[in-house]
Amino acid sequence: MSFSNMLKAVLFLLSIPTVLSHPSPQHETWTALASITVAPRQEHTAFFLQPSTIGILGGVVPNGTWFATTDLMQFYSIRDDSWRTATLIPKPLNHVNAVTSRGKLYVLGGLADTPEGNWAAIPDAWVYNQRKNSWTAIAPMPVGEARGSAAVGVYKNLIILAGGITLLNVTGDGSEITVDTVSIFDTSAGKWVEVPEAAKTIPEGRDHAGAAVVGDKMYILGGRKEGKEHVQDTVFILDICDMAAGWTISSARMPTARGGLSTGVIENKIYTFGGEGNQNLESGVFNETEVYDPIKDSWERLGSMEVPRHGTSAVAVGDAVYIPGGGIRAGGGPVSTFDVFRPGAKHPCKERTRQ
């Protein structure tokens, strides 16, 4: 190259706007925490126990040939950044419907191994007493309503389960049976209660959906129906104080349709992370982080996940969302990765979407 041509090339490069080499900073942050001990994990459920414990239970772990459903329960100390193994859950389960309510941990069904090697729903339910470090059997799920991978929300003394799957064929074609059932467990009465007719089913079957309760309303975000390739972008809403009005569908669709996502609520906004069913990537996993504002009924795109995953659940504590484990490939790929997301200061130029 001649000197004159080289000079022209240099001048051209200098003329390119600096924004290309200096992208806008992301105000949200991801911080790596102590990795999950014992074994990598996915299809487990995460929860919070006072005063500063993140827990995970059930799920699947590698067994050398495929994945084994586990009865492991582990506790992570936010204060010490360390893990310890707790008492086992009563049965090995994956896609567990588990949540804490008023200081107690409830397991309300899930999927268990079948003799054929598939995963099928069981109705068994238990409550965990943290002080006694023990499980007690409680009323099983109503007849015909057993399922795993339900969207779970807590409102006062009520635990609401919406949608889910009754069977996941993991030895064959990966097909699954998705349901639209809604069930409610009253922790004060210790029993399952009748759901008002208009709220007994969600608008369409969903499993592997995100869920959150903000104010008096429950939100079901995305998910899938009859298989990981059938991802959805809907937001179903139930006014818990007026269940007779039934479920509604938000006009604000998710920017990215996905199932197997995780959700956490910070300052009344619902943050959604990752997921499964991405047809554009070989991994099949989404790296999107998007936040829904129920008041404005609008979505906002944030930066990508540091480690894209599906098949886990998130726990919001204060101004942070903790995401333990998950899968880095569609179907399988459990990891021990554990990180925490903080949204940081609001950025005035973030992209907004509203439909």
From TrEMBL:
Lineage: superkingdom: Eukaryota
Signal peptide: 1-21
Keywords in alphabetical order: Signal
Pfam families per the UniProt record, alphabetical: Kelch_1 (PF01344), Kelch_KLHDC2_KLHL20_DRC7 (PF24681)
Gene3D superfamilies, alphabetized: Kelch-type beta propeller
TM annotation in the entry: none
InterPro entries: Gal_Oxase/kelch_b-propeller, Kelch-typ_b-propeller, Kelch_1
Protein name per its UniProtKB record: Kelch repeat-containing protein
Key word Signal present: yes
